[in-house]
Design a protein that fits this description.
CATH topology: Rossmann fold
Number of strands: 14
Number of helices: 7
Order of helices and strands: EEEHHEHEEEEEHEHEEEHEH
Radius of gyration: 23 Å
CATH class: Alpha Beta
Strand order of the largest sheet: 5-4-3-10-11-14
Structural class: alpha/beta
Distance between the termini: 41 Å
């Protein structure tokens, strides 16, 4: 990066150019976590090409932007969207098929008020749709982590499983940004949130290096237009 400065020698003023260190930036996007956060907590769906343009061309000038996503078999629209993204300069797409994982059933025990007999009910908690790309994201982050201090990372996730990774790279990166949302809401007596308490504590511990960006603030730049 070049910056102009002035210097004086005798009665003359000289215009000189100061060469500043080049800041390299990398973005890593946990697509499923980020999309569900935007939809459930911020009320919008993400246009991934707009997000790429925001990170690559507009705001951040990222050198590389990594997308980690799951694609259901037969979802040609989403597959085509990410195939086109992968053709863009500096864009890397890691895609896996989506599988269904059964959640652990919940056991409810209630004692009868009159006879004190225990009634046991088992509630099925349904399934999670997952395409686990955690290993790929971790490897890409580590491969792009060097001892060069002029590096910034943007990680789009609220998943606490990445807390050890983020803590580790904060020791060498210039700055690190976590992009998510910290809202909570209650459903049938259960608190739902997409941002891990582990990441909240990490932000408090390393507020000199790690910063939080609310994805809701990016809504007007990256939301998908609904026809």
């Amino acid at each position: 990066m070049n910056r102009r400065a002035t210097a004086r020698k005798g009665g003359c003023v000289f215009l000189c150019r100061v060469i500043l260190p080049y800041m390299r930036r990398y973005a890593f996007i946990d697509v499923q976590n980020t999309e569900s956060t935007a939809q459930q907590f911020c009320g919008f769906s993400i246009d991934w090409k707009k997000l790429y343009e925001y990170l690559h061309d507009e705001k951040w000038s990222c050198d590389k932007i990594f997308f980690y996503t799951g694609i259901e078999i037969g979802d040609d629209r989403l597959a085509s969207e990410f195939e086109n993204l992968a053709k863009l300069h500096g864009c890397v797409v890691r895609a896996k098929p989506i599988f269904l994982y059964k959640r652990k059933d919940k056991t409810i025990r209630i004692n009868c008020v009159k006879c004190q007999e225990e009634n046991v009910s088992v509630v099925e908690m349904g399934y999670d749709r997952k395409a686990n790309c955690d290993v790929e994201l971790t490897m890409d982050v580590l491969e792009n982590t060097t001892t060069d201090p002029e590096v910034e990372f943007l990680i789009f996730t609220g998943d606490g499983d990445f807390e050890p990774l983020i803590r580790k790279i904060a020791d060498v990166a210039k700055r690190l940004y976590i992009i998510s949302n910290t809202k909570k809401f209650e459903v049938a007596g259960l608190i739902k949130a997409r941002f891990s308490s582990k990441l909240k504590r990490l932000l408090e511990d390393r507020n000199d290096k790690i910063f939080f960006i609310n994805i809701d603030n990016l809504k007007n730049r990256i939301k998908r237009d609904i026809p």
